[in-house]
Design a protein that fits this description.
Blueprint lengths: L7 H26 L4 H6 L3 H23 L6 H30 L5 H7 L3 H22 L11 H28 L4 H6 L3 H22 L1 H4 L4 H30 L5 H6 L3 H21 L7
Helix pairs in contact: 1-3, 1-4, 3-4, 3-6, 4-6, 4-7, 6-7, 6-9, 7-9, 9-11, 9-13, 11-13
Length: 297
């Protein structure tokens, strides 16, 4: 049996099996703490709750991949212990993200009513974005964190929690800035079933998660001091504040010159919302793969 756990193929299949079990567990946790129970809504053919749950599921998978990517100590028992503990921490933080979506980001109206009674796709899209963005941020924190020592380093878990809290705080600040930069109130429009506004905002939130993952991913931060890590993270936050609004400006004035994007989104043009969703995320991916903020610290 000991030889099996030295076989990389067996280890990979073992982690796939454990990951599937954790995904099943995540569904149970979601049903306990979310605004709805997934199975019940599927039987009712309700699509908006499933959209929100889809973001949660994507986020959980991101965390599983990040936790698996942190297996680097060459000690199977230690690696597996880190994996399980990070998955448990991820489930807890993702549950908190659901509360952030309904109590902080979309705090001005009843999320349960919008999701379950009004079938509001805009509300579902924002929940999808918050969950996925949270999963990306958590995955970035835990990727590459495993220590080569023979004991669990609890400081790794603390740093994950700290960066998660900072990410959620920044997500809230960004949505406030986004609300100020648009010629409409995002809460009023989403509550009025303006799906386009919710979809566009969701894209921006996911873009935040992608860029913050770049700031927190263990492989980039491993060789830096605490101060250098903090500086790199601050630079990434500044980049988001400056670059995403610029991208929105370029999108509205150059990429689709025949329409006024803000007006189209306000008028619930879902195509316009999707264009912003895709363009913002595409730009964030360019930042993720091409820009190394740590080189300036």
């Amino acid at each position: 049996m000991q030889g099996l756990f030295a076989n990389p193929i067996f280890i990979s299949l073992f982690y796939v099996l454990i990951s599937c079990l954790i995904i099943l567990l995540s569904r149970v946790v979601f049903d306990q703490f979310a605004l709805f129970k997934v199975g019940k809504e599927i039987k009712k053919k309700a699509h908006t709750p499933v959209i929100a749950f889809g973001g949660y599921l994507f986020g959980i998978v991101c965390i599983l991949v990040g936790a698996y990517g942190g297996q680097s100590s060459n000690n199977f028992i230690l690696d597996f212990a880190y994996y399980v503990l990070y998955c448990i921490l991820g489930l807890i933080l993702m549950t908190i993200s659901g509360l952030v979506a309904q109590k902080v980001i979309l705090r001005k109206f009843d999320n349960a009513k919008e999701l379950l009674e009004d079938a509001n796709i805009g509300t579902a899209a924002v929940h999808f974005g918050v969950y996925l963005s949270s999963g990306l941020i958590i995955a970035g924190c835990i990727s590459g964190e495993t220590s080569s020592q023979v004991s669990i380093q609890w400081a790794d878990f603390l740093s994950t929690i700290v960066y998660y809290v900072l990410g959620m705080a920044f997500m809230f600040l960004f949505t406030m800035l986004y609300d100020k930069l648009t010629p409409y109130s995002i809460h009023e429009e989403i509550e009025k079933d303006n799906f386009s506004v919710g979809i566009a905002l969701s894209g921006n939130i996911i873009a935040i998660g992608i860029i913050l993952t770049k700031a927190t991913i263990g492989e980039n931060a491993a060789d830096l001091t605490i101060m250098q890590n903090a500086a790199a993270y601050a630079i990434d936050l500044t980049a988001i504040l400056l670059l995403l609004p610029v991208v929105r400006l370029i999108l509205g004035n150059f990429l689709v010159k025949t329409v006024v994007m803000n007006e189209e989104i306000k008028n619930n043009n879902v195509a316009a919302g999707l264009i912003e969703f895709i363009s913002i995320i595409s730009f964030a991916l360019l930042i993720f793969f091409m820009v190394d903020f740590t080189s300036v610290v």
